[in-house]
Structure formats: structure tokens, C-alpha cells
């Protein structure tokens, strides 16, 4: 991290482990582990998130994980008038960080298997992606199925998982012109990441297959199939297994 | 006991205070963009705080009430009529049964809030009736109102007379909303610096047409980042001032996504979000640098004004 001068309103600039805690507006604080997309940094985010979840104070509304940072969202009404909620939240987070130093003994993340029918109408970009990678379609599928993924974060849309762990041979830039309509359940590749579209939406990622699982259902608890930190594996299935399970 | 939608208006949606606490699943809060007008509208009809209302954008709907109802219109100054008779805002109004409420253009401000005694009854998802337009859920089937929609109304302890009655008193929303004054918006420091450092504050900005509940896009001379390299996505909040590569800020509003990869050059304070919510395409705005303690004072002062308004309304509504 570079210091960009004194106008940064730091809550706690002490260099303990060179971690920074900074305000995110008036009702959230952000802790940054780094500024890269990196599986090890992301594991630290989820290990700390799991630790924080077990010790939630009444003022903590939400813990939002990102690639290399996490934010605590605060209920300001839970503090007295003369308290400074962000300073108190920052101090609380510091204490938890000290506790979590030995948190390598984190709980094993949940493994979720996602059945996918690759190619054909369900994966219209599979052929182009395989060609760009200089491999066959079946090799591309094999590489996508073989990898062990982790949910770096959920964002972009409700329940949309950004997955780390993609075989680098399958990385491919987004389409220059995004599709106006990507069907729900589409499994796609954008840059070095892969993800699944929870509902029909516009999108620029390369669509290689489709799953019958419902990634997001607002009436379900929890509403998202995947949680940040989960492990994910894709399992290849035949077309009809996806088709007949997909509700319109 | 229903509200019938004859014409839906430009973008009319069911909103309440929103659904905090689900951002980790990629679910934003949604909710009324102007939380201040939303709160006063509910107070004026005797609803508990957080009752679902209609948020009306720029051009209002035509609605028919099948029973007598007490309503209040707050927020934008909107052309509202009953059989051609203009109806004023910021006060309780009793409508007779079968009244057809014609809401036209917002003359000043961008978003009006229509509260109805008893509230709109829609299923709550994750604790909120708000429409999440990007996620396609909540409110009226996850979308803006459409012609022919019928919204059930809740029971109200009031029994409004079956005749038009317009209260002779009203609530003055200034200084929290003052359409006669240019918008000066207080901004807390963000993670990223621009060069020169005061450029956000020294330039005049205008609201671009491509603005919506997710964010206000601004027009003006492009800003430059002190450190222009690409960033990875981090959490954002309503009020975050994003700076995309084109150098024109985006101010996130109630439908903000949960994460953003653009630079964050500041955060609009919560007390100024209602004013932001009321800016129309083409409206000018100025940014004022603010520190955290001042933001807290301004939030506190706004809360006190709202508390005084709450007391005043409760006294007025109390049966004599």
C-alpha cells in the first residue's frame, strides 16, 4: 500500500500486520488485506469472516467479503449519541484480528457440486473458447470440471458467485458486445474467473454451459445457494438432466 | 380495499426502508431513495415507520381507490389532482371512495412518495416489501407498477370520512429538502485521491440523463485519479462516489450494487442522500468537503428535526 497523503480519514493507521481499517462512508468500515485477486488473500478474508460471524455484536448488520477485503456494516442506532461508531467498530475488529492470528485452523469450507450441461444451446461460447485456447471442446470441459473452485464473493447481481480456481488455459476476455439476454443458470467465463448467472440478465461473460440449480431464490433462507468462502465443483451432466429440471 | 393502477407513470415502485443485512449474498438494500420524505409521508397518514409506500419518479401514475382513504404526498413537488382539483403535498388528505387520483409531472424534485393509511400489502422478502428492480424481486412481482395492477391496502385504525378533506396545515421540509436552493452535497473522504486534490469540489457538476435508482451519473470536466491503475472490487455503500475510467463520478443510491471495482473518491453523507434523490437530469450540484465529526453533527441535526416533525404530526393527528 502506498500512502496517498493526509486527507485519508484513517480510523486506525497503526501498521499491525500492515492491515488497514478505513471508514466506508458513515456506517461501515473496510479492512483490506491486499489489492490483488489472490486465492490466499481471499482465504484469509473468509477465515476472518467466519471468525467474526461467531462473535457478532448487536450493532453488526452485515459482513461483506470481497476478493481481498471485507466490510462491516453498522447499525448506528445501536450506539449512544456520544459514541463514535466507526472508531468502536474499528477497535472491535482489531481485537478480533488479534484473536484470529492462529485461525489457520479454520473450519473446512462447505463443498457444493453444480451439475452442468456443457456446450450446445446451453453453452454457445464453448466452441469459440476451446478454439481460442487451442484445445478441444472435451478438453475444455475436462479442465473446467477438474478444477477446485472457491467462492471469492457474491456480487454484480444477487447470488452471483465470483469463483477463483479457473484453469488458466480457459481464461478469456469478456465479449466486446455483451449479450442482452443470458439465461438463468448459465455457467460462464470472464477473464480469469468463472461464475454462474442466477437469473436472466444481460452479460458479457463467455457462456460454456448451464446448470439446473437455482442459485438465487429471494424466498429461500439463505436466498443464495452459495456463500462466500464455499468450495465449488462442476459436474458434467447430459442435456436432458438440465432441460427437464429447468422451470420456466 | 385495493388500489387500482390505471396508468403506471414513468417508474412507480413499492418501497419501504429497504432490506439491510443481505449484502454478503450480493443483495443490495433497495428501499426509498429519499428516506426523509418516505418517513414523513408515513407519519402524515398515521402509519408505523417503515410501512410500504409508492415511490414515484418524474411522472406519476393514475390510481383509483375503491374505498375512502387517507393519503399524503411528500418528496418532489408533483402535480396531483382529484377530478381536476389540485391537491397539495406534505399534509394528510382524505379521499372519498372510488376517487381517481391523477398524478402528473414532478415540477421540482424527482421522486414523490405516496403513503396510504394502512399501507400497501405486499409479501415481505428478507424483512422488506421493497422492490429490488435489479434483482427482480420484492414489491409488485419484482417490477415497477404496470397498468391493471391491483395492490391490496392494509387496514387503518382511522376511518376517513367518505368525502374530500384537505388538512389546512402542512410540513415544511426545509432545510432538509429545499428545491429553491442549489444542491450543496457534503462528501467524506474516500479511498482514492484525484488530482488536483480539490477538483471534485471546485468543479460544477450536472446530473446526467442516464441516472436511476442505482446511481446518479454526473456530467462535468473529467476527473483524474492520482493513481489510475485498475482496482479490484471492494464493498461499496449508498453514497459512495465512484470514479469510472471516463472521469465522471457516479453517486450510488438505494439500489447500489454490493461491490464495485471503480475508484472511490468520496462518500456523500447520509443526511444529504434525500437531496441527491431529488435531483433531476440536468440539475446542477456542488460538492463540499466534510469530516466525520461534521457528518455526525449534520446527521444528528436532521434526526432532531425529524423527531420534532414526528411530535408535531402526532399532536395534530390526535383526536380532539
Describe the protein in words.
The complex is a heterodimer of chains A (248) and B (320). Chain A is 21% helix and 27% strand. Chain A has helices spanning 39-53, 85-99, 126-133, 137-146, 239-243, and strands spanning 20-23, 28-32, 60-65, 69-74, 111-118, 149-154, 161-164, 179-182, 186-190, 193-196, 201-203, 206-210, 231-236. In chain A, the strands form three sheets. Chain A has a seven-stranded mixed sheet. A four-stranded antiparallel sheet of chain A has the order 1-2-4-3, covered by helices on one side. In chain A, a hairpin with a 3-residue loop joins strand 3 (60-65) and strand 4. In chain B, helix 1 packs parallel to helix 4. In chain B, the strands form four sheets. In chain B, strands 1, 2, 3, 4, 5, 6, 7, 8, 9 and 10 form a ten-stranded antiparallel sheet that branches. Classes of the chains: A alpha+beta (248), B alpha+beta (320). Chains A and B meet through strand 2, strand 3 and strand 4 of A and strand 16 and helix 4 of B.
Quick summary:
The complex is a heterodimer of chains A (248) and B (320). Chain A has 248 residues and is α+β, with helices and mostly antiparallel strands. Chain A is built from 5 helices and 13 strands.
Largest sheet composition of chain B = 10 strands, antiparallel
The largest beta-sheet of chain A arranges its strands as 7-6-13-5-12-9-10
Question: What pattern of helices and strands is seen along the backbone of chain B?
Answer: EEHEEEEEEEEEEHEEEEEEEEHEH
Work out the helicity level of chain A: 10-25%
CA distance, first residue to last residue of chain B: 27 Å
Instruction: Give the overall pLDDT of chain A as a whole number.
Output: 88
Task: Indicate the structural class of chain A.
Answer: alpha+beta
DSSP summary: helix tally of chain B:
4
Number of strands of chain B: 21
Rg of chain B is: 20 Å
Distance between the termini of chain A: 48 Å
Number of strands of chain A: 13
Strand % of chain A is 25-35%
Strand content of chain B: 25-35%
Describe the global form of chain A.
elongated
**Mean pLDDT over the full residue set of chain B:** 96
Biggest beta sheet attributes of chain A: 7 strands, mixed
Assign the structural class of chain B, choosing from mainly alpha, mainly beta, alpha/beta, alpha+beta, or little secondary structure. Answer: alpha+beta
Amino acid at each position: 500500500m502506498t500512502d496517498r497523503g493526509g486527507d485519508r480519514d484513517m480510523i486506525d493507521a497503526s501498521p499491525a500486520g500492515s492491515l488497514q481499517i478505513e471508514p466506508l462512508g458513515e456506517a461501515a468500515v473496510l479492512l483490506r488485506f491486499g489489492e490483488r485477486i489472490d486465492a490466499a488473500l481471499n482465504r484469509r478474508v473468509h477465515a476472518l469472516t467466519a471468525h467474526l460471524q461467531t462473535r457478532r455484536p448487536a450493532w453488526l448488520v452485515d459482513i461483506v467479503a470481497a476478493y481481498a477485503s471485507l466490510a462491516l456494516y453498522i447499525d448506528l442506532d445501536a450506539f449512544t449519541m456520544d459514541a463514535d461508531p466507526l472508531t468502536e467498530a474499528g477497535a472491535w475488529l482489531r481485537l478480533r484480528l488479534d484473536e484470529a492470528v492462529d485461525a489457520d485452523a479454520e473450519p473446512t469450507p462447505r463443498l457444493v457440486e453444480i451439475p452442468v450441461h456443457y456446450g450446445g444451446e446451453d453453452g454457445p461460447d464453448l466452441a469459440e473458447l476451446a478454439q481460442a485456447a487451442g484445445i478441444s471442446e472435451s478438453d475444455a470441459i475436462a479442465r473446467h470440471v477438474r478444477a477446485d473452485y472457491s467462492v471469492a464473493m457474491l456480487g454484480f447481481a444477487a447470488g452471483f458467485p465470483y469463483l477463483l480456481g479457473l484453469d488458466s488455459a480457459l481464461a478469456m476476455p469478456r465479449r466486446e458486445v455483451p449479450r442482452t439476454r443470458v439465461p438463468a443458470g448459465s455457467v460462464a467465463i470472464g477473464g480469469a474467473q468463472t461464475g454462474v448467472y442466477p437469473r436472466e440478465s444481460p452479460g458479457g461473460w463467455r457462456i460454456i454451459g448451464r446448470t439446473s440449480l437455482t442459485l438465487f431464490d429471494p424466498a429461500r433462507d439463505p436466498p443464495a445457494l452459495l456463500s462466500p468462502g464455499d468450495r465449488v465443483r462442476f459436474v458434467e451432466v447430459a442435456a436432458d438432466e438440465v432441460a427437464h429440471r429447468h422451470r420456466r | 380495499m385495493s388500489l387500482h393502477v390505471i396508468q403506471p407513470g414513468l417508474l412507480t415502485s413499492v418501497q419501504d426502508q429497504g432490506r439491510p443485512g443481505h449484502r454478503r449474498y450480493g443483495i443490495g438494500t433497495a428501499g426509498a431513495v429519499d428516506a426523509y420524505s418516505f418517513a414523513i409521508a408515513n407519519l402524515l397518514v398515521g402509519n408505523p415507520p417503515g410501512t410500504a409506500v409508492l415511490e414515484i419518479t418524474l411522472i406519476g401514475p393514475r390510481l383509483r381507490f375503491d374505498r375512502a382513504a387517507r393519503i399524503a404526498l411528500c418528496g418532489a413537488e408533483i402535480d396531483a389532482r382529484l377530478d381536476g382539483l389540485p391537491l397539495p403535498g406534505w399534509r394528510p388528505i382524505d379521499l372519498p371512495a372510488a376517487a381517481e387520483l391523477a398524478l402528473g409531472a414532478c415540477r421540482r424534485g424527482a421522486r414523490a412518495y405516496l403513503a396510504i393509511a394502512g399501507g400497501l400489502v405486499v409479501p415481505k422478502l428478507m424483512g422488506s416489501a421493497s422492490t429490488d428492480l435489479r434483482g427482480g424481486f420484492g414489491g409488485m412481482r419484482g417490477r415497477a407498477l404496470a397498468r391493471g395492477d391491483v395492490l391490496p391496502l392494509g387496514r387503518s385504525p382511522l376511518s376517513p370520512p367518505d368525502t374530500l378533506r384537505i388538512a389546512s396545515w402542512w410540513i415544511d421540509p426545509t432545510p432538509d429538502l429545499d428545491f429553491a436552493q442549489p444542491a450543496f452535497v457534503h462528501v467524506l473522504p474516500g479511498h482514492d485521491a484525484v488530482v488536483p486534490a480539490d477538483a471534485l469540489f471546485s468543479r460544477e457538476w450536472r446530473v446526467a440523463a442516464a441516472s436511476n435508482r442505482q446511481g446518479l451519473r454526473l456530467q462535468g470536466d473529467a476527473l483524474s485519479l492520482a493513481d489510475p491503475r485498475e482496482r479490484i472490487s471492494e464493498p461499496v455503500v449508498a453514497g459512495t462516489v465512484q470514479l469510472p475510467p471516463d472521469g465522471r463520478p457516479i453517486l450510488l443510491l438505494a439500489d447500489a450494487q454490493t461491490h464495485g471495482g471503480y475508484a472511490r473518491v468520496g462518500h456523500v453523507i447520509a443526511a444529504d442522500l434525500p437531496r441527491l434523490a431529488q435531483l433531476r437530469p440536468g440539475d446542477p450540484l456542488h460538492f463540499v468537503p466534510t469530516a466525520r465529526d461534521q457528518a455526525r453533527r449534520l446527521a444528528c441535526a436532521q434526526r432532531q428535526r425529524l423527531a420534532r416533525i414526528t411530535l408535531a404530526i402526532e399532536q395534530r393527528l390526535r383526536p380532539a
